[in-house]
Amino acid sequence: MCTKIENIMKKIAILASGEGTNAERIIRYFLEKRTAEVALVIVNKAQAGVLKRAERLSVPSLILTAQDFADGKALEILHQYHIDFIVLAGFLLKVPDAILHDYPNKIVNIHPALLPKFGGKGMYGSRVHQAVIASHEKESGITIHYINEQYDEGNTIFQATCPVLPTDTPDTLAIRVHQLEYEYFPRVIEATILGKNLSI
Predict the structure, then answer these.
(1) What does the pLDDT look like over 73-116, one tens digit per residue?
(2) For residue 74, which of 80, 103, 108, 113 sits 20 to 30 Å off, Cα-Cα?
(3) Residue 10 and residue 38: Cα distance in Å, rounded?
């Protein structure tokens, strides 16, 4: 019975550029749930902390350059690992059209604000939180969305909110947003792969 379940599990690739806290939580979530498998972690920076996290959890990882994505090598590797679904977790390169076309509605990203506000090229990490605070927003949150050819413009799958306090700094707001990411991102990925709506 276990072998049969493993054979039909969807294979996920996580693309990341940084420390990989979200990536680790996603890997651990699916190790426990067994509804899908994180089969590969791809990074574009050799010093990315996510590499050590993947190694500790026995997930294969590869370092690919921007050129590897541009010339089709990344797509070939995704095929070699039989990847069904791609998750961007703090990945800072633009995904090339060839991968987008090969994985329609099978690539999701998480953004640390409520799109369509505070999105677009260059809007990531503390830059987003700084912009939210500077605009005197009353709430922020996360947006999980499909990706397309434009930064942060793919169809929204899920949003969750948190308050922006008068005393917030980018760092304190980031803590609140990270909590939403950790709570919801793995569950939304699972629901999306299984074709279900996440109820909260």
Answers:
(1) 999 999 999 999 999 999 999 999 999 999 999 999 999 999 99
(2) 113
(3) 9
Burial of 194 (0-12, 13-18, 19+ CB in 10 A): exposed
Of 22, 70, 62, the C-alpha closest to 186 is 22
Write out the two tokens for 193: 């792969």
Q: Is 20 annotated as a binding residue?
A: yes
Please report, for the domain that includes residue 15, its CATH number. Answer: 3.40.50.170
Query: Is there a catalytic annotation at residue 82?
Result: no
Is 21 known as a binding-site position? yes
How far is Cα 39 from Cα 50, in angstroms, rounded to an integer? 14
Catalytic choice (82, 101, 111, 178) = 111
Q: Is residue 197 part of a domain?
A: no
* 22 is annotated as contributing to ligand binding: yes
In the chain, the number of structural domains is 2
